[in-house]
Amino acid sequence: MKSLEAWLILRSLRGLSDGTLCRLVRSFGGPNEVLSSSSSDLQNAGIRSSVVQSIRKGPDRSVCKQVADEIRLIQKGACSIVTVLDSAYPSRLALIPDPPPLLYVRGTLPAADDHVIAVVGSRRATPSGMLVTQELSERLAALGFTIVSGMARGIDAAAHQGALKAKARTVAILGCGVDRTYPPEHQSLRNEIEAHGAVVSELPLGSPPLSHHFPRRNRIISGLSLGVIVSEASQKSGSLITARLALEQNREVFAVPGPIKNRKHEGAHGLIKQGAKLVEEAWDVVEELLPQLDGSFRDEVKNAGSTEKADPVLTDKERNVLALFNDEPVPIDEILAEAPLALAEVMSLLLSLELKGVLKQAPGSCYLKC
Fold first, then answer.
1. What's the pTM?
2. CB–CB of 271/255 below 8 Å?
3. What is the CATH number that goes with domain 316-369?
4. pLDDT by residue (tens digit) across 21-80?
5. What kind of fold does domain 116-306 have according to CATH?
6. What phi, psi does 121 have (nearest 5°)?
């Protein structure tokens, strides 16, 4: 725990950025070595004189108490700690300009050979956006990709749920301490994520979900990933920050389109205009990422793609009913009113279309075209 104490002390120092802290511990060999270094060695390493003085002075009494309290919680099993020097630290994340020096983890982090895709979007997502995101994440997870998101309401939750439905790995990056759940109604989702992946934060235990934590959190979501999918995002959506960070980190950016008059999709459409890959199905993402996949996994994914199910065969009546749908959920009363068939026959056709995978029930007694 002596090394952990040194990590926590260094992280508490004002003026020492994540990128500089990581550079120092890599250069000097560890946090204890940084704390015991001379002023001249630190200055030669390019550290500002004010930060050098802070390191040489050491922590004040209040910081020492905070560090001691946090170490006690960790010893009691609140979480595990992975540092940027550990072999368990995600290799892609370690390469970004400002990787988090410490990760607080509940569950199991992605292994070095895991293939991670981030899925982000609106907290106030539409039912159709939620369903599309869940299906997309489920399919990618079934192909072997790990889905990472932020466990927020809306699109984030749908992304995690899709991966869990495929019985695959998913990782949630929090904007609060890993010992807290935000939003609180996602406690059961969080439990499932921990059991099938990990819940992760860079913030000290007990940290509240403050607004300025989330943009910083987003660099971890993109940094872990091969690429970032933005599904349903307005022009002011925080998910566009994740997309920008992904571009800065040389990650692929994907966007799911929606109705052109719907302002909830303006951010995603803007990304497409700027060159993001338009995504209608999982294979649109996969074919863009194939060159980055290792040989054996690439072959597995390609084989899975070549054995995709053919489009289902529909009867004339099924096609007529399907023609009543657009990209938004349609209430069942509206379907029954518009379909030129008896109620019992329409209900039978809806069930048949659902079994064939071209319709799905949405909240509010609605149906949505898949």
1. 0.84
2. yes
3. 1.10.10.10
4. 999 999 999 999 999 999 999 999 999 999 999 898 888 889 899 999 999 999 999 999
5. Rossmann fold (3.40.50)
6. 170, -160
